[in-house]
Every structure is written in structure tokens, then in C-alpha cells.
Design goal:
Layout: E1 7-11, E2 18-24, E3 35-41, E4 52-55, H1 98-110, H2 120-131, H3 141-160, H4 168-171, H5 207-210
């Protein structure tokens, strides 16, 4: 009911514990013009345990695993794990909301944490991109990869009938939808194409089986 710029949400027909999300690339960043679909899975004991957020659209990023799972501190359980390098205050707590999670993800896109990356290859290429001169940045492998994925994501937006904001004025929401509105933010219908080869498999992998999330971090304040 209080949407913010940069994303759109709708409930999944499968369950109230599954939400479909569309995240728009922020103007003025390498992700500008992008439209990235994701799925939020809420645990049965939410908000006492954090949700999981997984991109369904392919996205190359130091803090996103190959299967699309997002690795940031705010989505990690509030336990005292000294080996993770995270403070308990940086992790999930019941006062966090979907809004704070999505704002952290949008911030993460342009400000990766490469200390303990989820995608090592992306982290290496991002460092080279960051160290490159402004003139050479667009020609780095990292920039080329991201722009390719942004262009693919535009095809998905066109198919969904979604208008991607490319200016700060268009990107910023100026007002709330009516209480009867099914969609809670920018755009129109967002039907996930589970069979598209541009998406990850829709069945989320159990993070405990797939990887150790304690080894990656992003300060929740970023």
C-alpha cells in the first residue's frame, strides 16, 4: 500500500507465501533500462524468519548466485556467527519489511560487496570494471555482460506489456494506487514465464543444500 520507486509486486496465484517481483534498473547506473523478475518466498513463521529472494531473470552480479539466489545480510537469520563477518544488527529482524529488502537489493545492484562474493567471477570482473577509467568502463567485460542482460530483459518487459522507466522522473512513484488495485507499484501485468530459457528454474533450491550463505554479506544499511 506504500510503494516505492524501482519495483513492482503482485501476489502469486500459487500461495500467499510467494510474491512475484519486478525490479527496474536504476537510471544513471549500468542496469538502467533493465527489468528483472524475481520471486520472494516467505517462511511459515515470517516475520520471525527472513524471506528468500531469487531472481528469475538472468543477472550477473557479485552478490547473486548462479541460480539467482540473492546473498545479502538483511536476508540472513539473526544469529551470532562470528565467521561470517556480519554483525547481528546487519541481519534479519522482524522489524524489516519487503520494502527494506527490495531497497537493499536495488542498492546492491550498483554497489556490490565483493568481500565474500556469491559469484566469484562476477566479483573479479566488477573490480576490473570499477578500477577502469570512465572512458574504458563501457568496454569492460562486466559492463558488456550486464548490458546484454539488460537488453534481454527489455524483451521480457515488452512481452509483459511493462513500460520501463529510464528517467528519474519516470522512475519515482508520485502517488499511491487505489486500495482495490491488485498491482502495488509500477507497470502492468507480470506473468512469470516458467518455461522461458531466459529465466532460472522456478523451483527454488534449498539454500542449505546449495550453498553456505554464511560466507557472503552485504551491510543491510547499503
Amino acid at each position: 500500500m506504500k510503494p516505492l520507486e524501482g519495483f513492482r509486486i503482485e501476489n502469486s496465484d500459487e500461495s500467499i507465501y510467494k510474491w512475484n517481483v519486478g525490479i527496474f534498473g536504476p537510471p544513471g547506473t549500468i542496469y538502467e533500462g533493465g527489468y528483472f523478475k524475481a520471486r520472494i518466498n516467505f517462511p511459515m513463521d515470517y516475520p520471525y524468519s527472513p524471506p528468500q529472494l531469487r531472481f528469475l531473470t538472468e543477472i550477473f552480479h557479485p552478490n547473486i548466485y548462479d541460480n539467482g539466489e540473492v546473498c545479502i545480510s538483511i536476508l540472513h537469520p539473526a544469529i551470532n556467527d562470528v565467521t561470517s563477518g556480519e554483525l547481528p544488527s546487519e541481519r534479519w529482524n522482524p522489524s524489516q519489511t519487503v520494502r527494506t529488502v527490495l531497497l537493499s537489493v536495488i542498492s546492491m545492484l550498483n554497489e556490490p560487496n565483493c568481500t565474500s562474493p556469491a559469484n566469484v567471477d562476477a566479483s573479479i570482473l566488477y573490480r576490473k570494471y570499477k578500477d577502469a577509467s570512465e572512458k574504458k568502463k563501457p568496454h569492460t567485460q562486466y559492463a558488456i555482460t550486464i548490458r546484454s542482460q539488460v537488453n534481454k530483459s527489455r524483451e521480457i518487459a515488452d512481452k509483459d506489456g511493462v513500460t520501463i522507466p529510464t528517467t528519474e522522473e519516470d522512475y519515482t512513484i508520485r502517488g499511491k494506487p487505489s486500495a482495490s488495485s491488485h498491482h502495488l507499484s509500477l507497470g502492468s501485468s507480470m506473468d512469470i514465464e516458467e518455461n522461458s530459457n531466459m529465466f532460472y528454474d522456478d523451483d527454488c533450491v534449498d539454500s542449505d543444500d546449495a550453498f553456505d550463505v554464511s560466507n557472503c554479506s552485504l551491510n543491510a544499511s547499503t
